[in-house]
Write a structure and sequence with these properties.
The protein is an alpha+beta fold. The protein has helices at 2-20, 23-26, 29-64, 72-96, 119-139, 168-172, 231-235, 259-286, 288-294, 325-331, 335-353; strands at residues 108-114, 142-150, 156-164, 177-183, 194-204, 218-223, 239-244, 249-253, 302-307, 312-315, 320-322. It is 50% helix and 21% strand. Strands 2-3-1-5-4-9-10-11 form an eight-stranded mixed beta sheet, with helices on both faces.
């Protein structure tokens, strides 16, 4: 019974309340943080459970009043509203009870890389970067460039940036994969449509405690920065390249004038990449069910096509096509694609979980 299932969350919430004021927990910062986080994670379910219990109680009370001549009309009206709200709330609760991805509340690193298509791919990296920054602004998130590598045509071979805010990973994880663009390049004299592609990686930010890197496993090189970074970039050896020897992962950073700041940023990205690599290996072992559960399947899969001549954007995973390409890119309206992806993901989770 749904009420019995929900009562477990209410009981646990109350238990945590008692624990948080106990002397043993007050003197243990780590345990207090863990309990506070757990309480925060179940608070929405608890609020919904209390509302659900109240609705059940109110329905019973109003049914009893239907035989009262003076209050029958009022009870009938309230009963109609309650019985309309009850299935709506049950649907919300089903979603709240779905298994969650432990990374959903984390900040992320977004890595955009030019793939097939040469200069056009690099220009599309720049377009996607601007569109994602706009989307982040719309969501009230903060962004910070970690590293960039410019291409000759004015785009980027690579762009890495940090996105901070509420539920960032839970929304942006669906952007991971290959994005294909079809348009007529500015240099094309015959008006022919060219196809190019970029890859998008969405990597959760990690705490230092989550990943341990031995100093002897690192090779750190300093070098002169390249690109249009102004005079100081080209005259100081401030750029950093860190190689993680056991895995061969390489991270470079040259966006800051300070070598120390570049090293610090590069280390943060390296830790996130290593953690992400470990997570991918773990999911591969656990099989397809786990991949479906966290919503991040094959990263080499082509997930979306942006067709400029037709003004069309198509997400191939859910057969969604919108003829709003310009406004989505210019105004960063990615929620028009991400919201249906989340709904599809939740319905699949319901099937798997039997909710």
């Amino acid at each position: 019974m749904l009420q019995d299932k929900l009562q477990l969350f209410i009981d646990r919430f109350n238990e945590i309340n008692d624990l948080l004021v106990s002397p043993d927990i007050l003197s243990d910062i780590k345990k207090m943080t863990e309990l506070s986080k757990e309480q925060s994670n179940i608070s929405k379910i608890v609020d919904a459970a209390k509302e659900y219990n109240q609705i059940i109680s109110d329905i019973e009370d109003n049914k009893m009043l239907l035989g009262d001549d003076e209050l029958a009309d009022l009870a009938k009206e309230e009963l109609k509203e309650l019985e309309q709200r009850k299935p709506e709330l049950e649907a919300e609760i089903k979603i709240l009870l779905l298994p969650t991805d432990p990374n959903d509340d984390k900040n992320i690193y977004v890595e955009l890389r030019a793939g097939a298509g040469g200069d056009e791919a690099g220009l599309f990296v720049a377009d996607m970067f601007r569109a994602y920054i706009k989307f982040a602004e719309n969501e009230g998130w903060k962004t910070e460039i970690m590293n960039s590598s410019e291409s000759e045509a004015g785009g980027y071979k690579e762009m890495v940036f940090l996105v901070k805010g509420e539920s960032v990973y839970s929304k942006m994880k669906f952007e991971a994969g290959v994005h294909r663009v079809q348009r007529v390049p500015a240099t094309e004299t015959q008006g022919r449509v060219h196809t190019s592609a970029i890859t998008v990686a969405i990597i959760p930010e990690v705490d230092d405690v989550e990943i341990d890197i031995r100093s002897e496993d690192l090779k750190i090189d300093t070098m002169r920065a390249s690109g249009n970074g102004g005079q100081s970039v080209n005259t100081t050896d401030s750029a950093i390249r860190i190689t993680h020897l056991p895995t061969g992962l390489v991270v470079t950073n040259q966006d800051q004038k300070s070598q120390h700041k570049n090293k610090d940023k590069a280390m943060k990205v390296l830790k996130a990449r290593l953690f992400d690599m470990q997570e991918q290996e773990r999911m591969d072992k656990e099989g397809a069910d786990r991949k479906a559960q966290v919503g991040s399947g094959d990263r080499s899969a082509r997930i979306r096509t942006y067709n400029y001549p037709q003004g069309r954007i198509s997400d191939h995973r859910i057969n969604l096509t919108l003829y709003r390409l310009d406004v989505i890119m210019n105004d960063g309206l990615f929620h028009e694609i991400i919201d249906p992806l989340i709904a599809d993901h939740q319905s699949k989770l319901m099937e798997m979980s039997g909710v």
